[in-house]
Amino acid sequence: MDIKTFLITGGAGFIGSAVVRELIQNTQHNVINIDKLTYAGNLESLASVENSDRYTFEQADICDAQAMQRLFETYQPDVVMHLAAESHVDRSIDGPAEFIQTNVVGTAVLLEAARAYWKSLQQQDAPKAEAFRFHHISTDEVYGDLAENEALVVKSQENASPLTTHHSLFTEQTPYAPSSPYSASKASSDHLVRAWQRTYGLPTLVTNCSNNYGPYHFPEKLIPLMILNALAGKPLPVYGDGQQIRDWLFVEDHARALIKVATEGKVGETYNIGGHNEQTNLHVVETICEILDELVPLKADEDVQASSPTIHHSPFTTYKQLITFVTDRPGHDVRYAIDASKIEHELGWVPQETFETGLRKTVQWYLVNETWWKRVQDGSYQGQRLGSL
Ligand code: NAD
């Protein structure tokens, strides 16, 4: 195998750490992880690979042009995978400025550092310049809301379930129509990447993927929030009527897809990545409850004769009784769903997990990795900050 050096931005985040683990554990490639370690960066997600001599961590901000230039010159990467971003939609509504800075300005700074490095490669090492790739990782949220686009189509079927009335999917040709400051900032960064390819010839690839879930996901996100709230006997807050539809992708399937695109994808192309798992938010929460009912059964206090560590004493008999409907957030898209046929046909990638198998693995991971999530919840994971280099 042709051994490459991957420069990964945001490698201490949820998806980035899955990509780093996959590269170190299942390939021979080298990894340079560049991460600012914002609240979302957690080096404890990389404990299983941090001692590998093929892995290097550098704490740096992608908005810092000098630092980016130095890192490109020092490590001479073959592939850049750009995942660093502010990624939480609710936070973008409360404070959009940081999203513009990291997602838009940071991407422009990184593109310029990559372009300068790639130009120098063209003079010094033409085959390496020829093989260089800049892979930008983005979201299906740039396409906006499928349900809105289809409102006319479904008007006559108002009483039917959204899952049976909506049939179209986001393709690589779907026009951009972002709704939130987060998705607008990601859309901007996608346009910048394509402009650097069209204008300067930088060999770029873009992927847009659906909602990820899986191990090492921060407790503020829907699936871990529901698992951990349920285990703590707290309410399970569902926005609006819970009928918003998301297409769920197991993070390890996504990591494998990203590495395939970065190494085998065609320059200048966009690939959508999805898991064929359209679910309403309410169905997701109910399925988590069903898995927990099976794995960590609740037992009403009065029924408990002998105490058991696997049985939670509670006034409820199923976790579903914790579900609480809360006011929907502004601009909440009703439906996202992705057509991943291009990456399947052209690169031969298919997800290994169904929603049921992936969700079960995820719930089981949270049950046995209490130390990881407790240190995120109490903030002690941030003690691993190294200071700027
Ligand atoms: P995350 O928030 O878990 O991780 C982001 C990482 O980027 C963190 O480690 C953080 O410290 C780092 N970072 C933030 N600002 C930085 C900066 N200025 N310089 C260097 N590092 C910085 O995000 P994620 O969920 O892993 O998402 C990764 C990428 O995938 C993002 O670009 C996101 O838009 C995209 N994406 C995510 C999802 C999803 O479901 N999570 C879906 C589609 C696309």
Automatic annotation (TrEMBL):
Protein name: dTDP-glucose 4,6-dehydratase
UniProt entry keywords in alphabetical sequence: Lyase, NAD
Organism: Halomonas colorata
Residue span(s) of domain NAD(P)-binding: 7-362
EC numbers for this chain: 4.2.1.46
One of the record's GO molecular function terms: dTDP-glucose 4,6-dehydratase activity
Catalytic activity: dTDP-alpha-D-glucose = dTDP-4-dehydro-6-deoxy-alpha-D-glucose + H2O
Pfam families in UniProt: GDP_Man_Dehyd
EC category name: lyase
Listed cofactors: NAD(+)
Family: Belongs to the NAD(P)-dependent epimerase/dehydratase family. dTDP-glucose dehydratase subfamily.
